[in-house]
C-alpha cells in the first residue's frame, strides 16, 4: 500500500488544507507500528524523535517501527512515556525526519478550523476537517482528574491516535487521542506536550 | 503569467472569521438548567427573554440560566409549545445583548455552525452545512411549518442553542427533540414569530376542529361533482368539539376548508393556523355522495402550555 494523501468525501473536506500546507507538514507525520495491526499516528518532534500516544505503544512486546511518508521504515524505541498524559516519546535513530511546525494551543479559539491527519482503519495519511468544539478542562473516562483537552468535530477512527491536529496555518496544535460519545474528538494540546518534554511554552 | 493565490492566508482568514462568528453569537447563548444533571442551551432573542428547547424543560419551577460569568440567574417559564419544541423563559437579571437574526433565509449547502452552552458554562461549536430546508412536518405536539436540517454535530445539550451563519447571525434554534434525534433547527424568523404569543399569552394559538380522520380515496361517482380523488374520512368526533357543534357527522368525508381542497391530515393542519381560532370557516363534506357545506367556528387546540 503506497502512502497517499486524500480528503474524506465529507462536505467538511471542502475546507481542505491547501496543497502547499499539506506538502510542508506531510514529511513530519509518521505511522507508528506498535500495538494493533493498523498502525497509529505520530508527529516528528525532532529529526530523531517522534511523539505519539502512550496507549499506542503500551504493552507492545514486538519491536516498534516508524514509517515515514516516503515509505521507509525505521526501528524505534520508547524514550519516555506517561500513562497519565497518554503521551510517549520515541527515539528513531538515524531517521532524519523533518520536525513538524509546532503551534501554540493556548491561542486556539472555539470555532476555528482544525485538521486531523492519521490512518483511520489503516487507511494511511487521511485528512479530516472540522472546528474546535470546546477548550475547557474535561473529565475523561478512565482518568482520575479532569484534564485540559481540545475538543473538535473532526472525524477520528482507530488509527488516528497519536496523529496531529493542525490549525489553518498547518501548525501542530494537538495530538489526537480519543473519541467520546461517538462524535466528540479529543486531542492533547501541543502546549501540554511541550511542557511534558521540558520545553518552554 | 501565473496567478498565485495565497490559499494559506485565505484559510486562516476563514478560520478567524468562524471563531469570530462563534464568539459573537455565543454572547447571546446561555446554559439552561431545566432538568437533572443535563443542562441544555438557550438563545437570548429579546432583552431578558430566552428561547429554549421545550423538551429540555423537565420541570417548570427552579429554572436557572447561566452565562459565561456571574452567578446562575433565576428564570421563569412564560410559555411552551411542544409542536415547535420551543419555550420562552424570562430572566429579569439577564444583561446579555439579544442575538442577531439572519436577514435572508437558510440556503441548502451554506456553511453553518452549531453553537451551544451545554455545561460548565462553556461555549461549544461544530461545523456543517444546511442539509435541507423543509416543512410542514408533523411533530410531537402538532405541526411545524418549516425546519432546517443540518449535518453539524448536535452535541448533548445543544438543543435550544443557535444555528448560525459564518457571520454570527442566527439562522435557527437547534433541537434534536423533534425528529428522532436528528439535528434540526426552527428557522429564526419562525422562532421569533412563535416567541411573541409564547411571551404574551403562554401558548401558540393553533386552530382545532376536534376530529379524528383518515385519508381515503373517494370512489368515482361519489365525489359530489368535484374532481378531487381523496378526502378525510371522519372517524372520531371529540365531545363538545367545534366540529360536533358545527354539525359534522361520523362518516362524513371532509374535502375542503375555507375554499381550499383537503387531501390529507397535513393539508388540514396547514389550513388551521392560529389566526382562524374563534373565526367561522366553511367546511365542505361529502355525505352519502352529496356535497354539504357547514359553518364551523374553529377552536383552540388544547394541550400543554395553556
Describe this structure in words.
Chain A is mostly beta strands. Chain A folds into 2 domains: 6-22 and 101-196, Thrombin, subunit H (Beta Barrel); 26-91, Beta Barrel (Thrombin, subunit H). Chain A is 9% helix and 39% strand. Chain A has a 6-stranded antiparallel barrel with strand order 8-9-12-15-14-13. In chain A, strand 10 and strand 11 form a beta hairpin. In chain A, 51% of the residues are buried. Residues 1-14 of chain A have low confidence and may be disordered. Chain B folds into 2 domains: 9-197, Thrombin, subunit H; 207-300, PDZ domain (Pdz3 Domain), CATH 2.30.42.10. Chain B has a 6-stranded antiparallel barrel with strand order 1-2-3-6-5-4. Chain B is elongated. Classes of the chains: A mainly beta (201), B mainly beta (306). Chains A and B meet through strand 9 of A and helix 1 and strand 8 of B.
Order of helices and strands of chain A: EHEEEHEEEEEEEEEEEH
Strand content of chain A: 35-45%
Please state how the strands of the largest beta sheet of chain A are arranged side by side: 8-9-12-15-14-13
Strands of the biggest beta sheet of chain B: in what spatial order? 1-2-3-6-5-4
Number of strands of chain A: 15
Oligomer: heterodimer
Q: Uncertain regions of chain A: pLDDT < 50 for 5+ in a row?
A: 1-14
Give the tally of β-strands of chain B.
22
Straight-line distance between termini of chain B? 71 Å
CATH architecture of the largest domain in chain A, by name, is: Beta Barrel
Mean pLDDT of chain B: 92
CATH architecture of the largest domain in chain B: Beta Barrel
Mind telling me the CATH superfamily name of the largest domain in chain A? Trypsin-like serine proteases
> What's the shape of chain A?
globular
Number of helices of chain B: 4
N-to-C terminal Cα separation of chain A, in Å? 38 Å
**Uncertain spans of chain B:** none
What is the CATH third-level topology name of the largest domain in chain A? Answer: Thrombin, subunit H
Main structural class of chain A? mainly beta
Secondary-structure content class of chain B = mainly beta
